[in-house]
Design a protein that fits this description.
Structural class: mainly beta
């Protein structure tokens, strides 16, 4: 059995879009990535899943701050920050060595002790881990071997004093009025070949795309079209992707080359209502979010400093990480208010869903 003690430091760049993760937290993950591929996937799944769902759900915020559509060629430019709260019950996860092949708590020679370890927003921990493995000799004897060192389990961000603990999802979007009381909303952003670290040649890029249609359905229903309320149906899709191109080489120790990518997708369907009271607009909506996200690393990592105990050959690992989080569909209900001063708007709202969300922003609108 191989014990994969690799050093794919660059893979950690896949988490950088989730800032506020710090360099010290990222450094803690180096030791986790020295375990087997299965252990890496299991630990990452537990550590990052709540933050991934927080960000993906947050992408559904900011699409609207009124149910009133623009006149043809009217438009708005709006910036919103959404934070979907991660419940306290999901800020820790149970580490059970039975779920891992090469990871256990330090000093646990029987591999039977469990512990609550932090997720990305779980704060600090004093627990230490160690790597170990087993192999069977030609005579049938089984031997255990370790890396000869222990290391601290990765910390999380301490959010215990914050009213909301989540990953911020900022959005900048343009809304344009079309015909028949219909608005087209677009989110777009791209940055390529940005320096990941001054000490390496690694580059990263970010792509953001979103599109939505908001249509005034009240106009088609005779019984309600004269009510002093604005009503609309919104259908939107958002996609975020960040990629890291890495090329690392430490002679005689390890080499790594490839691309890491992290994606988050959100589809939302909402029925909206709003009421304007002078410069104040009260608005709300009900609907569903459908979210998914994933992490993938394509490339080759070769480790030389710790070789296979049987063959003496260095480890070569190809495409070490590829998994997705399918969040399914979740109900959402939103209530908020907007203040309009001339063509400037300020808005804030709160959404009740699996991860409750607070949104706030400002914009410019011209009818």
């Amino acid at each position: 059995m191989k014990l994969n003690f690799t050093k794919p430091i660059i893979i950690l760049g896949a988490f950088f879009f989730l800032s506020p993760i710090t360099k010290s937290v990222a450094q803690d993950f180096v030791n986790i990535f020295r375990a087997s591929e299965e252990d890496v996937t299991q630990y990452m799944d537990s550590y990052i899943e709540p933050a991934m769902f927080s960000f993906a759900n947050g992408m559904a915020g900011g699409w609207y701050n009124t149910a009133k559509t623009h006149k043809p060629l009217g438009f708005d430019l709006t910036f919103t920050v959404n934070v979907a709260n991660i419940p306290s019950s999901e800020r820790l996860f149970l580490f059970n060595p039975n779920d891992y092949g090469n990871l256990r708590l330090a000093g646990d020679l029987t591999s039977s002790q469990t512990a609550d370890l932090p997720t990305l927003v779980g704060g600090d921990t004093n627990e230490r881990l160690e790597l170990y493995g087993q192999y069977t000799a030609p005579d049938g004897s089984t031997y255990e071997y370790t890396s000869g060192e222990t290391f601290q389990a990765p910390d999380g961000i301490d959010v215990s004093d914050l009213p909301l603990a989540g990953v911020p999802a900022p959005t900048l979007q343009l809304g344009i009025g079309l015909i028949k009381n219909t608005d087209l909303k677009i989110r777009y952003g791209r940055a390529k070949d940005m320096e990941l670290d001054d000490n390496t040649n690694n580059k990263y890029g970010v792509d953001i795309f979103g599109i939505a249609l908001m249509h005034d359905f009240k106009q088609w229903i005779p019984g309600i079209k004269h009510l002093p309320l604005d009503m609309a149906l919104l259908v939107g899709y958002s996609r975020f992707k960040t990629t890291i191109d890495f090329d690392e080489n430490e002679p005689g120790v390890f080499s790594a080359e490839g691309t890491a990518s992290l994606t988050a997708n959100n589809t939302t369907i909402q029925a909206l209502v709003s009421k304007k009271l002078s410069i104040l607009t009260l608005y709300g909506g009900i609907g569903y979010n459908i979210v998914s996200s994933g992490i993938k690393v394509d490339g080759e990592i070769v480790n030389y400093d710790l070789t296979d105990v049987i063959t003496g050959e260095p480890y070569t690992v190809e495409d070490p990480v590829d998994f997705t989080y399918d969040g399914g569909s979740t109900f959402r209900g939103t209530a908020g208010m907007r203040l309009k001063l001339a063509f400037i708007t300020l808005h804030a709202d709160y959404t009740f869903q699996k991860y409750n969300m607070l949104s706030a922003g400002l914009g410019f609108t011209f009818r």
